[in-house]
Amino acid sequence: MGDGKRARSEEFQSFMVGRWPRLMRTAFLLTGEQHAAEDLVQSTLERVYVSWRKVGAADEPEAYVRRVMINLHARKHRRRLKEFLAPKDDSGLMHEVADTGDRIAQADDRRALLTALAQLPVRQREAVVLRYWEDLTETQAAEAMGCSVGTVKSNAAKGIAKLRAIPALAETVTHGGRK
């Protein structure tokens, strides 16, 4: 293997190891299942590795990788627009181990939050995850989703409204000490 190729492989490996937890968290929130999240991240990284020279030279490689992940996820679910991502029960949900900086971990009932999030349609879930969990700006979320800022605003607002209307989640917020 040439020195340039070896250097790119090492750069990719460093990127992958450093970003794996965040990519897994995003994928988990998009898919609602640990195994599906792992598959999504692995598929994303396979595609990114092939064009790592271009990706690594990008201003924001992580944004590029996130866009690939969103596209792969959306493509998988495009044919089933009416189907929700969530399993019929939460037995298939494997809850991630939160790091200390994860704001989601501060929720009193993580299961209720993830179950409620899993009930959102694909585009609303993507908008909510990118805007509120990944803390992207509306412009960054629009770029990641491949849509307009207005579409992100609309989907995020509808998603948040649906989350607020779920009784189990509202009960967690009001009775969980977060009034």
From TrEMBL:
Q: Does the keyword DNA-binding apply?
A: yes
- Pfam families reported in the protein's UniProt record: Sigma70_r2, Sigma70_r4_2
Q: Which residues form the RNA polymerase sigma-70 region domain?
A: 21-80
Database matches in InterPro entries = RNA_pol_sigma-70-like (IPR039425), RNA_pol_sigma-70_dom (IPR014284), RNA_pol_sigma-E_actinobac (IPR014325), RNA_pol_sigma70_r2 (IPR007627), RNA_pol_sigma70_r4_t2 (IPR013249), RNA_pol_sigma_r2 (IPR013325), RNA_pol_sigma_r3/r4-like (IPR013324), WH-like_DNA-bd_sf (IPR036388)
From the Swiss-Prot or TrEMBL record, what is one GO molecular function term?
DNA binding
- The answer, when asked if DNA-binding is one of the entry's keywords, is yes
Start and end residues of each RNA polymerase sigma factor 70 region 4 type domain: 110-163
Mind listing the UniProt keywords for this protein, alphabetically?
DNA-binding, Sigma factor, Transcription, Transcription regulation
Task: Kindly state a single biological-process term from the GO annotations of this entry.
Answer: DNA-templated transcription initiation
Q: Which family does it belong to?
A: Belongs to the sigma-70 factor family. ECF subfamily.
* Record-linked PANTHER family: ECF RNA POLYMERASE SIGMA FACTOR SIGM, RNA POLYMERASE ECF-TYPE SIGMA FACTO
What is the recorded name of this protein?
Answer: RNA polymerase sigma24 factor
